[in-house]
Amino acid sequence: MSAILIDGKARAARLRAEVALGVAEIVSVRGRAPGLAVVLVGEDPASSVYVRNKGVATREAGMVSVEHKLPADVGEDALLALVATLNADDAVDGILVQLPLPRHIDADKVIAALDPAKDVDGFHPVNAGRLMIGQPALVPCTPKGCLMLIEEALGDLSGREALVIGRSSIVGKPMAALLTAKSATVTVAHSRTRDLAGHVARAEIVVAAVGIPAMVQGEWLRPGACVIDVGINRVVGADGKGRLVGDVDFASALPRAGWITPVPGGVGPMTIACLLANTLQAARARA
Amino acid sequence: MSAILIDGKARAARLRAEVALGVAEIVSVRGRAPGLAVVLVGEDPASSVYVRNKGVATREAGMVSVEHKLPADVGEDALLALVATLNADDAVDGILVQLPLPRHIDADKVIAALDPAKDVDGFHPVNAGRLMIGQPALVPCTPKGCLMLIEEALGDLSGREALVIGRSSIVGKPMAALLTAKSATVTVAHSRTRDLAGHVARAEIVVAAVGIPAMVQGEWLRPGACVIDVGINRVVGADGKGRLVGDVDFASALPRAGWITPVPGGVGPMTIACLLANTLQAARARA
Predict the structure, then answer these.
(1) For residues A64 and B235, what is the distance between their CA atoms, to the nearest angstrom?
(2) According to the model, what pLDDT value does residue B249 have?
(3) Do A135 and B161 touch (CB under 8 A)?
(4) By percentage, how much of chain A surpasses pLDDT 90?
(5) How far is CA B144 from the centre of its chain?
(6) Model pTM?
(7) Binding positions for NADP(+) (chains A, B) (predicted)?
(8) Are A248 and A231 in contact, with CB atoms under 8 Å apart?
(9) Nearest-by-Cβ selection for A159 from B177, B184, B193
(10) CB contact set of A88 (below 8 Å; sequence gap of 6+)
(11) Is B124 strand, coil or helix?
């Protein structure tokens, strides 16, 4: 037996098509397209690629994307002033400040300065809090996308045993909140967890978000589990070539899992698609 | 063998004494005592008792307590106006709106109107979000008190297996966030959980917050577990007399647990003591 591969690209394409329809609708009602402002500080190559890809995807969905590039040595005050301008700009429905920020800038302060209604990354404390207490919120893109993939595989999650490995504010914690809201029984494991293999063995849903290559062994899995691999780790193979691997050992997981996301092509495409969905959601809420 | 009874009254008395010292310090620095404003809408007998007890405890700690009693049919606008006045009142360090509110008032809206810096119940989305993402926050009183009791019993919680039964925004969810922040491996169970007994059997820490009398059976417990019973349920015994019982079946849990909170006298006294601690924390942050 071999796991069903969860095709994140196909699911993301469907979501992007849905977003494009929603965008067309909002254009017909409001007379202008939703606008996403992306703020990039410095020249980090990976961040630059992300920002470029987000811009392309945003425009493909029929939205307006404006990129604000600031030098790496920009002052915190200048960045906060830009955020204030974007908060006040009626043409801007969503604001994304690409992380990480340079060390001399307090990222928490910048995120807290965002209008929560425009916080399409879902990182503002108000959005984190609303998610936690079950109020409508802008939800971080990666866990939002993971949830869609899990529901596509399993349908109703009520009563399912779920394990989230990793407790970051960007993935692990919001993922746990989303699964709990869907009435799964959720355990959050992390670096201090003693019997990780035992927890994995009980889980019908495993979300791995730790950033350690092939850290979850396939032999640990409960047969038939739905495995969502958020990790994107660059490793160098025996041939000296770099390649991307997840947090789950794919080769040993494939024969044991029921469903599994490949890396790349699983969670990754969903993250950008969910950013578009969040921008549409923000625009609708403001309309 | 019999479990050690966790004496919530004694721990709460110690906390209240610490708060009183902190209050004296802030009075000497700032020239006035921290102030707590408690808002009570309507005449619910239980709420009236809570509010009175909170007032007494606040004054005993050397703080100023002001109670605002509004009729049950007060309009939402009038309540929001009072909140705005209290937000702006420099003598008020903490604001507590006693729940539940009458049905014609949107409680979420009232809580969201509080200045998060004065939200000593820790129910505002900003405080829930800060707790979730690991920033300094005003934390809901009951789970804050539970954590103190657990740490008193077990010390360092890193790597401990913890089970929180109940997923309310007031107890279960913040409790899980607090335990995760202390590096426990936390599972949140609830009404849809399939194998509750199995989860209880693995847990070194069990926090029961469901409001169902004696729902957790002592036989389920892992021997030596630390059991925190948040439930306060009024039941009528065979003798026709009412008495208070927790969510854990105390008689069967006592010989099996390592530590257990009695009901009453366990978690309850900690809740008010933590309200005082939160008021002091808010006053210090504003000073």
Answers:
(1) 61
(2) 98
(3) no
(4) 98
(5) 6
(6) 0.97
(7) 166-168, 232
(8) yes
(9) B193
(10) none
(11) coil
- When pLDDT is cut at 50, 70 and 90, the band that residue B274 belongs to is very high
Q: Report if residue A251 sits inside a domain.
A: yes
Strands annotated E in B29-124: 35-41, 64-70, 94-97
- The separation between CA A141 and the C-alpha centre of its own chain, rounded to angstroms, equals 3
DSSP A218: G
The neighbour count for residue A103, using CB atoms within 10 Å, is: 7
Looking at residue B244, the DSSP 8-state letter turns out to be E
Note whether A132 contacts B: Cβ–Cβ < 8 A.
yes
Asked if A95 contacts A115 with a C-beta cutoff of 8 angstroms, the reply is yes
Question: What are the pLDDT digits (tens) for A128-180?
Answer: 999 999 999 999 999 999 999 999 999 999 999 999 999 999 999 999 999 99
A199 in B contact zone (CB under 8 Å): yes
| B132 φ/ψ angles, rounded to the nearest 5 degrees | -65, -40
CA distance B30 to A277: 49
User: How many structural domains is chain B composed of?
Assistant: 2
**Catalytic-residue membership of A98:** yes
Catalytic: A9? no
Q: Are A29 and A283 in contact (CB under 8 A)?
A: no
A173 contacts B185? CB cut-off 8 A: no
Q: Do both B232 and B153 map to the same domain?
A: yes
pLDDT over 80 (residue B183): yes
Q: Are residues A147 and A232 in the same domain?
A: yes
Nearest beta carbon to residue B189 from set A124, A185, A194: A185
Asked if B248 contacts B214 with a C-beta cutoff of 8 angstroms, the reply is yes
- Tell whether the model's pLDDT for residue B1 goes beyond 80: no
**Same structural domain, B103 and B148:** no
With an 8 Å Cβ cutoff, is B136 touching chain A? no
Q: Name residues whose C-beta falls within 8 Å of residue B7's C-beta, 6 or more positions apart in sequence.
A: B265
Residue A156 in contact with partner chain B when CB distance is under 8 A: no
CA-based nearest residue to A273, from A12, A33, A6, A59: A12
Which chain B residue has the Cα nearest residue A137?
B125
Q: Which domain holds residue A177?
A: 141-268
Contact by Cβ (8 Å): B147, B273: no
Structure tokens at A72: 């790496």
| CB-based contact B177 A129, cutoff 8 Å | no
Amino acid at B211: G
